[in-house]
Amino acid sequence: MREESDTLRAMNFPVCLRPLTLAVLLCVSASAQSAAPAHGSAPAPASKASLGQPVQRPKWAIVLHGGAGVIDRNSMTPEVEAGYRAGINEALAAAEKILDRGGSALDAVEAAIQLLEDNPLFNAGRGAVFAADGTNQLDAAIMDGKTLRAGAVADVQRTRHPISLARAVMERSPSVMLIGPGADAFAASVHLEQVPPSFFFTERRWQALIRDLEKQGLPIPARPAGVPPPPAKPLSWMEAPDAHKFGTVGVVALDLHGNIAAGTSTGGTTAKRWNRVGDSPLIGAGTYASNDSCAVSATGTGEYFIRLTVARTICALVQYKGMGLQAAADEVIQRQLTALHGDGGIIALTADGQLAWSFNTPGMFRAKWQEGGKPQIAIYRDEP
Ligand code: ASP
């Protein structure tokens, strides 16, 4: 049986088109994976496999994250939680609208991330964390699972939507990755919206920077030009410096044509220095997509994700070891990343409709939705 399945895999049969006996088994196993727990290596709940029901690949699917970290109920008010859920809902709805009418996974990923970049709750675009020199240095990447084309940018400071710039790099330049002022200049040359750096400013991220620099004994940069004066009264919880330590955003999508795509956008880590770049814009580390394996977007302390090439490793386990997506994600996040004392998580999906997430932090803003089902949004570790 195993040999037969390997042979079929080698023949490059799409999983759900393999001969019926195998199709039932394999597609059912895909469903079991998508029903697996949100994190950890706890045993999967009774799956439809055990009920003997064949499962079809959904016509479209989305999985999204809004950052992983120390996110627990004690540190959230109902209003704050509602704010996050509303932002995630809005992004999901935008992606669903595109996918349901037959639009591409790439379009869905870009549209959802644009909304999250504009939402000051998330660490991407407006609301991004500050580097030690008082600037917002934005990173993003996008990858097309159908063609393996990819685009990425790092240290962008003037382009409103870094995810759209990453896509323009992929589609309208001969390069895969552009950085710094050159990346912004390219954005302007292809008429992507340019904004003053103050556009990305939020008071709470600024306060978080000051606290971080004070802790490290580093100099505090001047307040950026063109931003409102410091508030007279203390910030509300919603704006408190530690409330949004995380918040990188990522989306993976499967479209009606069976293609998958992944995108990630971030401000990186607070008080980063020397033009530090994390995993998010590095293809294979924080972002990856191939129709032959899977699409992944990561979030967490980027240095560990770079060293483990997390996104590509998960997809390689699926592609070459024949692992289910959830098992592959757990192998890399729960075992390998945890062994290195790295922290964070991923979202992922495959072209045959397996959906997964895995994280080793107390929480991860996350959501999934597939055709015929209801959107599922979760924040804390104990949620399904
Ligand atoms: N992975 C991002 C980075 O290291 C940060 C995050 O996801 O919170 O730049």
Proper CATH architecture of the largest domain: 4-Layer Sandwich
Helix content bin: 25-40%
Q: Biggest sheet, strands in spatial order?
A: 4-3-2-6-5-1-11-12
Describe the largest sheet.
8 strands, mixed
Structural class: alpha+beta
Estimated radius of gyration: 20 Å
Overall mean pLDDT score?
Answer: 86
The CATH top-level class label of the largest domain: Alpha Beta
Question: Helix count?
Answer: 11
Order of helices and strands: HHHEHHEEHEHHEEEEHHHEEEE
In total, the number of domains comes to 2
For this structure, what is the CATH homologous superfamily of the largest domain? (Glycosyl)asparaginase
Strand content: 15-25%
Tally the beta strands.
Answer: 12
| Distinct small molecules | aspartic acid
Distance between the termini: 33 Å
Poorly predicted sequence stretches spanning 5 or more consecutive residues: 1-54
CATH T-level topology of the largest domain? Glutamine Phosphoribosylpyrophosphate, subunit 1, domain 1
How would you describe the shape?
A: globular
